Amino acid sequence: MSAEIISTCPLCGCNHQIPFRAVDDYRIVRCVRCDGLFVSPPPTASELTAVYQQESYFTGGWLGYNDYFAQRPMHEQIAQTRLRRIERWYPQRGRILDVGCAAGFFLHVAQERGWEPLGVDISHSMAAHAAQLIDRPIAATIEDLELPHASLDAVTMWEYIEHVPNPAEQVRRLVELLKPGGVLALSTPNTGYWTAVHQPDRWREFKPPAHLIFFTEPTLRCMLESCGLEVLAVPHTQPRAPAHPYAFQRLLELLRRRVGNGAERRTPLWWTFSLAWRLAEQVARLRYRFDPPGSDVNVCLEAYARKR
Fold it and tell me: What pLDDT, in 10s, does the model give residues 62-113?
């Protein structure tokens, strides 16, 4: 693992990396300057487009979601929490752009809270659903919107930056579109999570070509600050105990499909499984917080930053 690789880090521009791991036909490397992890070389633009045009990405494909539409209540509940955080630093409602808006659940909640929603998504089917939900067109790219400089009050990128090979470049472009004092908010998998650090072969977020960049809190903060943003908060969210034993994991998955849980309410009994799951998680997380001490059991990072 000591051989040097000549490439360019998409986060800091350094051209020295060392191997981290191989996943299928892809190679993940670690930058020796910023400690960032990324896929090198990245997939082509056409290969990435093909991934997100597949319906299976949102309906059970291993690269994406089990059932994106069945999880709508969960997405909308999370949207309320995220919007409250944004409004803490930007109380006045204005134009909000969601990049990678998928089916538009976040934009719909923002619209109901008084924001003027704008959306971008590469998936034709998801963009069509979002357009119908908020009664506004959804663009395929940021450039297609043809927005003037400093015309947005807030920009969001939920579970988006890990999907693109040039996240810093995209963030800089979006900062140009923000008004001074405007808020940029995003979320991404937490590569400081216990399983990612101690059992990386079991962490499902190492999944190129869908995920190309892998952030920890320090690398995420560094990128945002290098793009001219003042970082307001980086909360670790979605606490979850690392993978349970295999047989138990299979049982939980079977119960989720048959009964449902807080995200997928398949039967009137969904709440019993949801409650049992939460209790089991609390007990399991306590163990991992002390093994080793200081372990991070939060699956996701969120970041809230302001244009200077």
Answer: 788 888 998 999 999 999 999 999 999 999 999 999 999 999 999 999 999 9
HSE-up of 268 (CA within 13 Å, CB side)? 0
Measured in whole angstroms, how far is the alpha carbon of residue 102 from the centre of its chain?
Answer: 12
Q: At what angle do helices 246-259 and 270-289 cross, to 10 degrees?
A: 150
Exposure string for 220-245, b = 16+ CB within 10 A, e = fewer: bbbbbeebebebbebebeebbbbeee
pTM for the whole structure: 0.84
Distance CA 164, CA 231 (A): 21
Residue type, 68: Y
Helices (H), 90-191: 105-112, 124-134, 142-145, 167-177
State the amino acid at position 124 in one-letter form: H
The answer to whether the beta carbons of residues 188 and 178 sit under 8 Å apart is no
Phi/psi for 239 (5° steps) reads -60, 135
Strand ranges (DSSP E) for the chain? 5-6, 16-23, 26-31, 37-39, 95-99, 116-120, 138-139, 152-158, 178-189, 213-214, 229-233, 236-239, 298-307
Classify 109 as helix, strand or coil.
helix
- Give the integer Cα–Cα distance in Å for 194 and 297: 6
What tens digit of pLDDT does each residue of 15-55 get?
A: 999 999 999 999 999 999 999 999 999 999 999 999 999 88
Q: CA-CA-CA-CA torsion for 113, 116, 94, 185, nearest 10 degrees?
A: 80
